[in-house]
Amino acid sequence: MALSKLLIASLATSASAVKLWVSSYAPEGSTVGAVSTLEFTPGVGGGSLKTLSENKECGSAPTWLDLAIGGSRIVCTNEGWQDAAATLNTLLINSDGSLTKSSTTNLPFQGPVSTQFFNNNGAVAVAHYGGSAITNLKVNANGSFSVLQEFNFAGQPTGPKPQQEAPHVHHSVIDPTGKFIVFPDLGSDLIRIYGIDSSSKLTEQKSFVTAPGYGPRHAAFWQPKTRNYGKKAPTYLFVINELVNKVTSYQVSYANSTLTLNQIQEQSSFGPNQATPAGAAGGEISVSPDNRFVTVSNRKAPVFKVKNPNPSNSTQIDSDSLLVLKPSDDGKLSFVQLAPSGGLTPRHFAVNKAGNLIAVGNQDSASVEIFARSAESGKIGAQIATLQKIFGSPNNIVWDEK
After folding, report:
1. Which secondary-structure segment (H or E) carries 263?
2. Element of type H or E holding 388
3. Which of 2, 108, 155, 230 is the most buried (most CB within 10 A)?
């Protein structure tokens, strides 16, 4: 409690209003999703969060937002299940934070859920969950895209669980050398590995096979910076396995223009003190901006009760959870905290650059929560703002920190 009060007090005196962008699936009964511009204003005892504008030009299922393209632009994927095609869209960021679409590129497969820019943002690799595929595209000068390569995995072997009826490529992540991209495939129990060449072409390498039924969903590379390793810093890959709610740590090795993985640790995404509830599903994993902590979200299995967002209702509501871990130089992760997400199904979250705030998109609560956070300890503190009944079902969040 003391930590939370201290964090809130420091926020009120050290920060001004800041914007965020949130993508959301179309609400029930609608065929239009949105990318909303939100504004968070810190205040004494908490803060406020409001919607400034909504852009509905990214199709029925905006799923992933990426600022890496630069030039005051956001790239937004549209899964396209209620549209003629899945699309990759470029949105211009206006001076007031609102968005205007500048280009749309049809994709060859449905269900794009993640993008990874590479080769100085000259190309982008797209993971297709529903389409069982990877698309590699050239980035054109005007912010549009042209398909360079297609990798279709439809019909390939899959895992033993019902959610693994087809390959489901869920994430695309570049390694620290910029020479490889890995793609966790939830449906096939694989971490697909591709090399990058100077022409931005991808070359398939030998995939890493996880344990059956694990369903690797998302991943994050990490290198220690606690001492001067120079170019010899070890590299690790942390993976959240959706279907077993385990976080796996891998040591990354490079030899003969290949990337290989060796498992060094595995642990529950609920930490050592909480049993994994039935029906739980791992969500996001990311490294904090200061490289000192790893955060993981757990969905579909609330283990907390939190204050009702309706001030006239004293009944507490269910909340899913966020796991905080601390990596050590040997790539192993130690438990720091299991904290509430503030609602149901935290598909995505984002820590700001200062490390003193974390924004959480609770998909099934149709809400966005902002919590105080200690950059020093990595611990998540009190909820300081919430936006209830945001348009649609929030699934991705980025801070306006260009």
Report:
1. strand 258-268
2. strand 380-388
3. 108
What tokens were used for 40?
A: 């968070």
For residue 138 the two structure tokens come to 């050239």
Amino acid at 54: E
Q: Which residues pair with 385 in a beta bridge?
A: 370
Name the one residue in this structure whose structure tokens are 């239009």.
32
368 closest CA partner among 358, 380, 359, 355:
359
- Report the chain's C-alpha Rg in angstroms: 20
Angle in degrees, CA 274, 279, 281, rounded to 5: 80
- CATH 3.40.1130.10 for domain 2-399, yes or no, is no
Q: Where are the beta strands (DSSP E) in 158-215?
A: 173-174, 180-185, 190-196, 202-204, 208-209
pLDDT mean by block of 10 residues, the chain; 402 residues: 57 76 95 97 91 97 96 97 96 97 98 98 98 98 95 98 99 98 99 98 99 99 84 93 99 98 98 96 99 99 96 97 98 99 99 98 98 99 97 97 78
Q: Minimal CA–CA distance to 330: which of 227, 401, 213, 260?
A: 227
CB atoms within 10 A of CB 303: 17
- From the list 53, 56, 98, 90, the residue with the least C-alpha distance to 73 is 90
pTM of the model: 0.95
Q: Three-class SS string for 311-366?
A: CCCCCCEEECEEEEEEECCCCCEEEEEEEECCCCCEEEEEECCCCCEEEEEEHHHC
CA dist., res. 218 & res. 395, Å (int) = 14
Domain ranges across the chain: 2-399
Q: Say if residues 287 and 294 touch (Cβ distance below 8 Å).
A: yes
Q: Do residues 250 and 239 lie in contact, with contact meaning Cβ atoms separated by under 8 Å?
A: yes
| Cα–Cα separations (whole angstroms), residue 285 to 7, 215, 219, 347 | 24, 14, 6, 10
Q: Distance between CA 194 and CA 187 in Å, rounded? A: 18
Q: Using CA atoms, how far apart are residues 265 and 389, in angstroms rounded to an integer?
A: 39
